[in-house]
Amino acid sequence: MNRPTKFITRTAVIAALYAALTLIVYPIAFGNVQARISEALCILPLFMPEAIPGLTLGCLIANLFSPNGVLDVVVGTGATLLATLATYFLGRIFKKDLGKIIAGVLPATLFNAVLIPFVIFSVSELAEMYLIAFVEVGAGELIVLCVLGIPLYFALSRASFMRKIMGYELPGDKEKKDNNEISSAPETVEDDTAEEETTGHGDSVVSESGEKQE
Length: 214
Hints:
Shape: globular
CATH class of the largest domain: Mainly Alpha
Number of strands: 0
CATH architecture of the largest domain: Orthogonal Bundle
CATH topology of the largest domain: Arp2/3 complex 21 kDa subunit ARPC3
Number of domains: 2
Helix content: over 70%
Largest sheet: none
Number of helices: 8
Radius of gyration: 28 Å
């Protein structure tokens, strides 16, 4: 599978997964306290850039069914796009697990907490309810990312078989592979040397036996 095809395929799979996981928990996916289990996927930009369009498209599809109407399609999808971009670029800066976890959790929590209240409440209600909605939306997002997103991060970063299933490599995977090949190289050389010594020894035996026969 060539690279553009792989990119499109991963994007489509992530989008479908996000939309499906959101609609499965529809009653708690669009209220003041939103507990979308699909938001756990917001850590994926740490591993692959395809997650940016994938999550954004998935959010757009899910928000088409939102009781909050067009505003949720525009603002909610925009919040996801900004969060995934921030996660991706912050993830390239931080190298340690703690930094990457913060990069995977904080952007989605903040962007949703700041922007989603504008979707839930009308202009007249915002003045009184904004701070409450900020805390409620942010808390719901944070809980999902901590309970589901962080374990997903460790599963993807630690389990090599998961990386094979997803079809991606971490930056250190190639270096480990090269190191393994280098470390195994001397054994091959030693084996070849042993074979040559054995062959040479065999030749001398034949030669000696030939002289004896003469």
